[in-house]
Write a structure and sequence with these properties.
0% strand, mainly alpha, 4 helices
Length: 87
């Protein structure tokens, strides 16, 4: 249960104020909060299912240190691309 709470808190904090939340706000203003909420849940569930399945497979194949370094490198690359206006 402790691991579940840790994942929940990390994802909750990471998603606050991001483009997904802003998009959900926009959809809620057009379609109502219930439709936007259900659509957001389904969309996020699908994306996170893909991530969880890939993470499970990758975690079995690659060492955790390499996964952490790769994730850090991707964050840096995406950050630089965003600063340059490429994303």
């Amino acid at each position: 249960m402790e691991n579940l709470i840790a994942v929940f808190v990390a994802i909750f904090l990471a998603e606050l104020g991001d483009k997904t939340q802003l998009t959900t706000i926009a959809f809620a203003s057009k379609y109502g909060w219930k439709t936007a909420f259900i659509g957001a849940i389904l969309g996020l569930a699908a994306v996170n299912l893909i991530g969880a399945l890939l993470g499970d497979v990758i975690g079995d194949v690659l060492p955790m240190e390499l996964i952490h370094k790769g994730a850090g490198l991707l964050f840096i690359v995406f950050g630089v691309l965003m600063l340059l206006g490429k994303l």
